[in-house]
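Q: I'm building a small set of examples for a reading group on sequence design. Run inverse folding on the following structure and report the sequence directly after it, with nothing in between.
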């Protein structure tokens, strides 16, 4: 099976999928899509991803889009190590946490929103960051409450799950916007457990081939 990941180094959705691929121990070919140069709008790329977003994972030439759908496909196709618990209620709780980030928190910080804030509303970078913090704080507060009573060190116990794949990129973005994370000790505990894993560190934005070099 040939896997090709179309990714942008700082895209949180791409970061999620890279973490999933790394935790599953899967090899893939990396193809960079520079969002700052609007390479996602290229007609050839739109054939792969009609929304002109990243990531796209090609599986033997068949494109898969939307990060959560890709992660679910990875789980179904490569079930070891698992990213979802076996018990249905526990699986639903992990999915709920992942969806809280993917559907409620993360979209407000994507590049299209930043462009709108800058170009249409005339907000400078400092004002944009304040706007993002305004929405990140309640979203992450809810996520903190969702796992506060769960055993650690990861979001839902002793091993990484889909929830952790979503959490790490979201906290990375939160730091970019200057959000203080001390109020979220349980999220930070899970993040630290993830970042202690070599596989997860290999998926970090700065480790990608298209990341800017000093």
């Amino acid at each position: 099976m040939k896997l090709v990941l179309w990714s942008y180094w700082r895209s949180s959705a791409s970061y999620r999928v890279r973490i999933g691929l790394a935790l599953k121990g899967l090899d893939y070919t990396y193809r960079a899509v520079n969002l700052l140069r609007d390479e996602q709008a290229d007609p050839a790329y739109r054939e792969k991803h009609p929304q002109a977003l990243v990531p796209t994972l090609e599986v033997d030439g068949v494109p898969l889009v939307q990060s959560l759908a890709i992660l679910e496909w990875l789980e179904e196709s490569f079930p070891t190590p698992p990213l979802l618990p076996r018990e249905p209620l526990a699986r639903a709780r992990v999915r709920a946490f992942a969806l809280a980030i993917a559907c409620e928190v993360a979209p407000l910080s994507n590049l299209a929103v930043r462009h709108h804030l800058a170009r249409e509303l005339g907000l400078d970078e400092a004002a944009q960051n304040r706007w993002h913090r305004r929405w990140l704080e309640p979203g992450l507060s809810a996520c903190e409450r969702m796992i506060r009573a769960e055993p650690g060190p990861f979001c839902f116990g002793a091993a990484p799950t889909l929830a952790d794949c979503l959490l790490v990129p979201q906290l990375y973005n939160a730091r970019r916007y200057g959000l203080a994370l001390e109020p979220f000790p349980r999220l930070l505990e899970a993040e630290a457990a993830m970042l202690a894993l070599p596989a997860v560190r290999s998926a970090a934005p700065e480790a990608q081939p298209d990341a800017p070099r000093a």
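Strands lie at 3-7, 29-32, 56-59, 62-65.
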